[in-house]
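Priority: low. Protein: Putative cell wall binding repeat-containing protein. Input follows.
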Amino acid sequence: MKKWFPGMIIPFLVACMLTAMPMTSLAKTDDDLEEVGSITIDLDCSIAEGDKGADADSQIAVDGDVDPDFIEVKSIKVTNKPSGDWKAKDKPKVEIKIRRTDKDYTLKKLSKDDITINGVEVRGITVSNKEKASATIVVTMAALEDQSYESEGSDLDLEVSGLKWESNSDNSSNRTVATWDASSDADEYEIRLYRNDTLIKTVEETADEYDFAPYMTESTSYRFWVRGMRGTSHGKWSKSGSHYVSSSEAAVNKKNHGSGGPTYYATWVRDNAGWWYRNADGSWTSNNWQLIDGKWYFFGSNGYMRTGWLQSPYSGLWFYLDPVNGDMKTGWIQSPTSGLWYYMDKSDGHMLTNTRTPDNNFVNADGVWTGAAGSSRPSGAASSTGATGPAA
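Result:
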């Protein structure tokens, strides 16, 4: 049995009293927590005009750690992604959810003035859903056409000047080469071609020029943008003046390069100047005959299909080409304007003159059927067959 001594009673009673008393909480109240003075977030963003809106979340990220280091990013996303492509005037909105990792701080009183965003041009910041441990920051970026995406603290001069259109090697008057003055700090350039207000091509180039002829195949206005790049830094966009491509210039571009790129296939092509035929290798016939799908066609010096009456530049003989389809006709044909009848040789398509035709009708020196009394058309006028080839 344990014995109690008189000197032990008082300490024992004190201990019992302390045990019975309610303990005061040691946790800090809101008033005890320290406010976060400022937050700096570096963004790595590559969203640009013409990019697909669906890809936006993969084009935005936090670059490195947040300052202070007890703040971390829970999530980041773009909240106003377009259903199609981004436009020059679009201003992406980036939602950044943050939280503290140090419980001695509170985010309840965080304001937009406490937020610094680097890496993008910013037009507005809002802070919402403020709790002790978390908050939501929404960053409204400047329009994409005004973004530079330069690294914070970068002193690189990546802006480009002296933009102009120069002639290409295909035609001295056809200005399809985008040129600019080189930037001393850029190691490459991003160039964009616009047809009116539509972005149609983006390229990267180390030289200070780029020939857009394969993409300038419509008769309309074009302009280009260019900016210098070095590593992850980009300069601001510089914009050229508008350049109008005539129908003849567009035709040259189309014939030399195809429509919108260097991939070719044999096909008929129609533009403002008429019909022409692009061969599988991208070439075209000019001032000569060509057999296409079993029919003969003649293409003028400009490469366009001829119709109606044609005098061969080689033999001087006359031929008749369908006024709509352009294919060479044989046998009897009636002029749609004069109503006169002519006979085109069935073997090579040339017009017979001053002779009797195979069906025993006479044509004079001009090739006109002289006719017989009471006849409105030559006998056998309905017959027409394909020729083996023009008589040049």
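Residues 36-141 form one domain. The two ends are 137 Å apart (CA to CA).
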